[in-house]
Design brief:
This protein has 605 residues and is of the alpha+beta class. The protein is 16% helix and 46% strand. It is built from seven helices and 25 strands. The radius of gyration is 38 Å and the shape is extended. The termini are far apart. Keywords: Cell outer membrane, Membrane, Signal, Transmembrane, Transmembrane beta strand.
Amino acid sequence: MVRTLTDGRSTGAFFARIGRYGLRAGTALLLMLAQQTAFALKLDVKVEGLSGARESNVLALLDIYRERGDADLTPARVLALHRMAPDQIADALAPFGLYRVQVEDALKEPSDAGGTWLATYRVNPGDPIKIGSVDYQVEGEGAEDPAFPKTFPMKIGDVLLHSDYEKAKSDLRYNATSAGFLDYQMVRHQVLIDPVAYSAHIHVHLQTGPKYRIGHVSFRQDLLDEDFLQKYVTFKSGDVYDPDDLIGLQSRLLGSEYYSDVEIIPHTGEAGPDHEVPIEVVAKRNKANKYRVGLGFATDIGPRLSLDYRRRYIGRHGHKLRAELSLAPALSTIELDYRIPIQDPTRDYIIIKPSSSRYDTDTRKGWTHGVQAAHSTLTEHGWRRNIGLDYSYEDFDLDSASLGVTNELVPSVSWSKTVSDDPINTNRGYRIKYALLGAVEGVVSETSYLSGQIQFKWIRRFTRDYRFITRTNLGATWAENLDDLPASRRFYAGGDSSIRGWGFEALGPNDPKTNETVGGRYLAVGSLELERRIKGPWSAAVFTDFGNAFDPDYEQEFAQSAGVGVRWASPIGQVRLDVAFALTKDDDSGGLPPARLHLVIGPDL
């Protein structure tokens, strides 16, 4: 039986007509797709009436703006995005308290197939909504706890900014956990908008629950003595439970390099009626040994091979060992550094440091051997203070004269501090060190003297492309005469980190008989440098260095150099290549002052 529609036509005839219409529509669609393939759609979007953060937020959330460059954009998609744009603009402005936003939208089609569509939105943001009432309540055991503000940070009459509202809630959550209220609940937190009165009503209710405290801290590991590990715990049982304290403990243990992984597990389910939470620290031991082989070059000492060995832990009480060998034509050293943590192991330790050095420079040749024992501690203000006692044995030839063998026992104290945004490639920072040392005749030493030194380096980037670097090195020694001082206690100048344009330790008082450098009892060296970024990590610099080592028993000479350099900010620090002209150096050629090439690789501070 043939079924009929309401107009009396047969079902078969109806579907036949649909087929013909479908064929025509399909043909038109194919032609339109082919035309779109031939001509990529161009779209320009303009938003007027906004600026600053409001404009940025609208553009970030406006789909028609974000998709304007898509290769597969179609006219149908443009129309759909244009219809959604006013609502998206209103939603993007709501976080700024703007709820009466008016948008005039216009979409202009191109006159030809390859033209540009233009979508324009003129926005009148209107006045921001203001807070009409604040319902803020803290209930429970912590209702009177000073961790929670007495009043909500947002006040009646303030503009409703959603960012301020979310920050206020986040601060409340943080205050709750840091004050030990781990079971807190924000039972109500909402903002209601009254569109008629055009005012906002804030409701924030927080239920604190009980206050938790830290219980016993135990360690699950197989490396170090637990009594020693307890020194890393800066809080005690019964203190208010603060997650930041646990994060700090984890950070200190990882920073010690004893462990490769540290997990802090608070057993809140075992708190009991006193609400003290047992803390378990699960730590996985790190690899014991670390090796490093390095190749480098510095103009002062030539090519250098360095071997570095570190033992991260020795025994059950966290002792550490470091051995370093550096081989270079002008200066070779071997040094052991044995450290024993004491008191606060993150700040205090005993250093025992045997060392040997071989010098083969223009001013001195020979060996020095020594051993240092020192107590090193980090003060509350960030100063590293070392108080130690050094024994040294020297056998040097100073230019053409032999100084023979020297033994001395030298007490010393030093303070040092480094502050920087990045110690490798620094934009803002400084390094400073004070040192005082001396010897007493008859106490192993053959002479008496007292020596002090100040070293300072300061770096500041004052625009995007410019950096200013200055450094100074000042020293003074009180002794009867220069001959009373061993070669290693005399001051010299010249070299990569002193006065460029001269060789390593080539400057200082000269012996009038041999005209060779013998060092001095005083030192005053300074440097000024301006660096400009060229492109990417590359920079250029101009500089001047000045000063010298001096001694009142010898003729005083002032030295100065100037030069230019190229810098590359590598991942391991600045690579600095300088050409320095020794402005005060005698030269009979009558041309440019003598020049010297300096190459240094290493961190800024």
